[in-house]
Amino acid sequence: MRCIYWNIRGIANDKSQNRLSKLINKWEPEIVGIAEPMIYPTDLPISFLQSLGMSSAFYSNPSSDLKRTPNLWLMWKDSISAPNMIHFSNQHITVMVDNVLITIVHTHCLYVQRRLLWLELSTINSLNLPWLILGDFNAYLSVSEKRGGNNPMAASMNDFRDFMNNNQLMEVPNSGFQLTWWNKQVGDFKILGKLDRMLCNVNWSSTFPGWKYKVVSRICSDHSPLMGGSISIPRPNNMPFKFFNMWCSHPKFKDVVMESWQEPLSGHSLYILTQKLKRLKAALKKWNKETFGNIRFKVEEETKRLELMHEQFESGDVTEDFVMNMVDQENQVELLLQQEQDFWKHKSRTK
């Protein structure tokens, strides 16, 4: 059983959809939990889910307030049986699939409100099944899990620890980044914390021995995605030459066009036009190969650079100049994700 959870902070934009696509294609999860999609489920194109091998049906936690969009979505691969809904509220969705329980959470920022969730989930524990809880808990287990700002409230940490102890829950072994959230501030205002995690009971760890999760880089959101399960290798792809909308977002595109077009030619006006178009095509083909020839490779390489910067940032030993360079790198990766998404949209229309 492989799972992904991500507080995506808005799924409507192309960059976030492309990032999510990459995570799903690489990790091939059966279950995907999304927090803060910021749109209604009906606003997400079915074709997007189908392109990822996900079921076009998925669960959300609707509210009695019609103006409030659901803050949690639970999706699944179309190759597995549809999970059975066990319970949901404004802080969680719990389903049963293949005789195991999976709960995704996006808890309230006030610890008093989180107490309602702890009570709800404690009743689910009585089912005595393998149980995984993953999500944004908005809570800390210890002071060491927060860096910057005020210390976590003792009452909040005690509540969280009591919930885990009373329900015989433990944190799933994990790797990657330790701090899953950054408030996007620098200097004295910078705060990092471990808000996102996965918990399980003994039945889960016995059913899935060696099951772990990895915390990966924050891209397109202030939260890191959590990846539970095995890794698969993404498929290679070829990028044929056509005019792609993503070119227009590149700062050097106009320069390439102007440089080719302004080079003088002599002859009849129609001849000049056809020759300039032919020359421009060759120039753009060369530029496309150099700049976008393997955009997936570029995304992966720039993402690796960003991960190294995130690791150094998490260590705390960085300057404000470093932070600004890291933010620039985040923007670069997000731009590449946007360009890659534009490419695939264009390619799907030209088939």
Describe this structure in words.
There is one protein chain. With 351 residues, this protein is α+β, with helices and mostly antiparallel strands. The protein folds into 2 domains: 226 residues, Endonuclease/exonuclease/phosphatase (Deoxyribonuclease I, Chain A), CATH 3.60.10.10; 115 residues. Helix content is 40%, strand content 19%. It contains 9 helices and 16 strands. A 7-stranded mixed sheet has the order 3-4-2-1-16-15-11, with helices on one face. A hairpin with a 2-residue loop joins strand 6 and strand 7. The chain is elongated, with a radius of gyration of 24 Å. It starts with a strand and ends with a helix. About 3% of the residues have low confidence. One of its GO terms (molecular function) is catalytic activity. InterPro entries: Endo/exonu/phosph_ase_sf, Endo/exonuclease/phosphatase. It holds the Pfam family Exo_endo_phos. It comes from Coptis chinensis. This is Endonuclease/exonuclease/phosphatase domain-containing protein.
At a glance:
GO terms for molecular function: catalytic activity. Helix content is 40%, strand content 19%.
Question: Descriptors for this entry?
Answer:
351 residues, alpha+beta, Deoxyribonuclease I, Chain A, 2 domains, seven-stranded mixed beta sheet, six-stranded mixed beta sheet, 9 helices, 16 strands, elongated
